[in-house]
Inverse folding.
């Protein structure tokens, strides 16, 4: 059914059942849909919005519905979530449309018997002026206001304090900016602007070749086809700047797919030198190869390889990026389904991360530099992992980096929050092998 609200509710049911990544689920579905661009935008807004705000929405529904939400049919619950989301967060949608369309969806899903309840719940919310109670306790109220599980609120507050916790979580329910990295090996700034076809963009004043895109789809532009840029968050660009590869270096990106950091480093090397990029799965290695071809980067050698297992056939490298698999807490505004995972799902990550990091040392030549990074903000996966490495390997010394950019830089580790650069949450650390 090519109805944007129906499709959003249907996708939500599939997403919450399967635990699939929202961006992949939505992209696959919209790619085969005949809906207009306007309807696709509406579907996307409701779908992502409900995932971002699920805990908040369930709290509201729980206060309005006579039945426990655990007892509601999945489709009915997702219709209610979509309806409440439109009433609470989408000013462009009239209240009447949010209610009436939600009631119609019940019939569309074969749940016509629930239409009266859906109508009553949504209209009662309107009668209450769309207000809902929140707990007096600050931690519990933060959970409701920012739609974050209790373990995540507690973890961030314990690791960094209240203000950084609020910074990340309040940002996580806002729309993520689109930033790109211009490819200076094939175009100038003027050529990029001309080929974007009128799409607005703002140049970053701290990160070279970084631009934030305004309205419009940059990836559908002539500039994208010509390889003039790739999409990349500011934090990932800062990570590459921390390693600072040049055309005289031999660089290893040991966990490279889908390749964004590989591409940025290859461009920083002016398309020269040697850059080896590995990923465990051949299918994901294909993403690196395809991206390198589009960007006209000839210095990238992409191949499948297990980052935790030593490969004696590889040469030694003077610069290594070890951007390891992680819990992804720093990117929940882009992948909001991550925050609904159980904390236990991340229990073994530090062990895996350390194993990859220690294996990477086997490839690092004396005098070489290594950057360890994650897109999470859990000290167990960040400071503790790199701290253990330094403790167990006296041949390493910590290195400060990007000190000219100010906070949070100035040491050998940096925990980046949205307040610093408007970027995703990210962790970067740097060491040198001195003997």
């Amino acid at each position: 059914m090519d109805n944007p609200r129906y499709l959003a509710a249907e996708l939500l049911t599939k997403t919450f059942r399967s635990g699939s990544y929202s961006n992949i689920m939505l992209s696959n579905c919209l790619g085969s849909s005949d809906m207009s661009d306007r309807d696709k935008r509406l579907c996307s807004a409701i779908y992502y919005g409900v995932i971002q705000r699920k805990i908040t929405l369930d709290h509201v529904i729980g206060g309005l519905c006579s039945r426990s939400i655990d007892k509601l049919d999945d489709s009915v619950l997702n219709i209610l979530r979509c309806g409440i989301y439109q009433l609470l967060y989408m000013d462009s949608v009239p209240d009447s449309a949010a209610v009436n369309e939600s009631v119609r969806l019940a019939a569309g899903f074969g749940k016509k018997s629930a239409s009266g309840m859906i109508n009553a719940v949504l209209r009662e919310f309107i009668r209450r002026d769309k207000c809902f109670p929140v707990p007096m306790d600050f931690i519990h109220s933060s959970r409701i206001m920012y739609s974050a599980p209790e373990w995540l609120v507690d973890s961030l507050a314990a690791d960094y304090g209240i203000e950084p916790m609020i910074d990340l979580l309040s940002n996580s329910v806002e729309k993520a900016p689109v930033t790109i990295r211009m490819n200076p090996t094939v175009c100038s700034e003027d050529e990029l602007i001309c080929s974007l076809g009128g799409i607005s963009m703002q140049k970053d004043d701290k990160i070279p070749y970084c631009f934030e895109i305004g309205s419009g789809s940059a990836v559908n532009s002539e500039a994208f086809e010509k390889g003039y840029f790739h999409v990349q968050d500011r934090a990932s660009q800062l990570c590459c700047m921390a390693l600072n590869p040049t055309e005289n270096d031999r660089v290893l990106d040991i966990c490279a797919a889908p390749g964004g950091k590989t591409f940025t480093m290859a461009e920083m090397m002016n398309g020269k030198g040697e850059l080896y990029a590995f990923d465990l799965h051949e299918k994901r290695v294909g993403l690196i190869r395809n991206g390198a071809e589009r960007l006209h980067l000839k210095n990238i050698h992409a191949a499948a390889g297990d980052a935790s297992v030593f490969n004696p056939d590889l040469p030694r490298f003077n610069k290594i990026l070890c951007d390891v698999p992680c819990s992804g807490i720093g990117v929940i505004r882009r992948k909001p389904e991550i925050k609904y995972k159980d904390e236990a799902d991340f229990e073994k990550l530090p062990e895996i991360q350390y194993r990859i990091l220690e294996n990477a040392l086997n490839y690092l030549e004396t005098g070489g530099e290594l950057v360890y990074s994650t897109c999470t903000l859990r000290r167990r996966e960040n400071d503790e992992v790199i701290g253990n490495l330094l403790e167990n390997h006296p041949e390493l010394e910590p290195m400060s980096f990007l000190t000219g950019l100010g906070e949070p830089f100035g040491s050998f580790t940096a925990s980046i929050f949205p307040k610093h650069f408007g970027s995703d949450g990210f962790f970067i650390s740097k060491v040198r092998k001195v003997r």
The two ends are 64 Å apart (CA to CA). The first strand starts at residue 178 and ends at 182.
